[in-house]
Amino acid sequence: MTAPVAQLERVSRLYPGGVHALHKVSLTIERGDLVAIAGPSGSGKSTLLNLLGTLDAPSSGIVRIDGQDVSTLSDNQTAALRARAIGFVFQQFHLAPGASALDNVADGLLYSGVRLCERRRRAAEALEQVGLADRALHRPHELSGGQKQRVAIARAVVGEPVLLLADEPTGALDSASGALVVQLLRDLNAAGSTVAVITHDRDLAASLPRRIHVRDGRLDTEVPA
Ligand code: ADP
Ligand code: MG
Fold first, then answer.
1. Ligand 1: which atom is nearest the Cα of residue 13?
2. Which residues of 122-144 are buried (b: 16+ CB within 10 A; e: fewer)?
3. Is the CA virtual torsion 6, 161, 129, 101 positive or negative?
4. Could you give the count of Cα atoms lying within 13 Å of 155 in the half-sphere of its Cβ?
5. Which of 13, 41, 46, 165 gets mutated to test ligand 1 (max ligand atoms within 8 A of its CB)?
6. What domains appear along the chain, each with residue ranges and CATH number?
7. CA 164, CA 39: separation in Å to the nearest integer?
């Protein structure tokens, strides 16, 4: 039996200064899920993403990624798990401005031990997968917002992570470009990727097969119909 992609058990996050951003949250993300994590601004969505992405540690409770209890790992082991298992997509793309789309995507394999020529070969494949093969040598400032986000998604998936985490991926896009990005996430999911999308867009959340609502640091989970 394979372990769930991600599992939180009674996870709390108390920030210094006393903000209780998450309260005893339990959540399982299974292989093949396409899940929306929805809720108003300040409800704890990004805190949840940071814990799922091993960028932050809980104040109490257990976070397991691909079956590994993250609290048992050293910083280096956690970084290695993150590099292997998680792909990140952020609202503001976070592309390197001086680098081509191809090299931005190839950077997604920087910690994989793969040689540069092979990183570029796989990056070209990933760009093709997101429909941007003809923009490989463009730099970010030569791309539209939607194209930048598709490059960022290619970078996130080029290493074939077990979990793709997207934090408000359509937040900086017009609605047509946003719809293309959501369709791309659906296509990747149909091809086998496990995807969690953080959003405060109710329509986007409603369009995905599984939804988790965050309110004041607590979850109310909706199971698939
Ligand atoms: P969302 O992504 O849903 O908008 P966040 O997870 O960013 O919510 O924030 C949840 C709560 O935690 C908010 O009240 C926010 O102000 C607080 N918070 C977030 N990050 C920090 C931090 N690093 N230090 C202190 N408080 C924080
Ligand atoms: Mg947020």
1. 12
2. bbbebbebbebeebbebbbeebe
3. positive
4. 27
5. 46
6. 32-50+74-223 (3.40.50.300)
7. 19
Q: CB under 8 Å to 84, separation ≥6 — which residues?
A: 112, 159, 161
Burial class of 191 by CB neighbour count within 10 A (0 to 12, 13 to 18, 19+)? exposed
What average pLDDT score do residues 28-33 get? 97
From atom 1 of ligand 1, which residue's Cα is the shortest distance away?
Answer: 42
Centroid of ligand 2 to alpha carbon of 149 (angstroms)? 17
Q: With a cut of 60, say whether residue 223 has pLDDT above it.
A: no
* Whether the model pTM is above 0.90: yes
The angle formed by the CA atoms of residues 43, 63 and 162, to the nearest 5 degrees, is: 95
β strands within the chain, DSSP E = 6-14, 20-29, 34-38, 60-65, 68-69, 86-90, 163-167, 195-199, 210-215, 218-222
Q: Which amino acid, one-letter code, is at 169? A: P
Report CA-CA distances (Å) from 42 to 155, 209, 216.
Answer: 28, 24, 8
Pocket of ligand 1 (CB under 6 A): 15, 17, 19, 21, 39, 41-47
Specify whether the backbone of 9 is left (phi greater than 0), alpha (psi in -120 to 50) or beta: beta
* Cα 212-84-187 angle, rounded to 5 deg: 50
At residue 24, does pLDDT exceed 60? yes
Neighbours of 25 (CB within 10 A): 24
Q: What is the pLDDT of residue 222?
A: 57
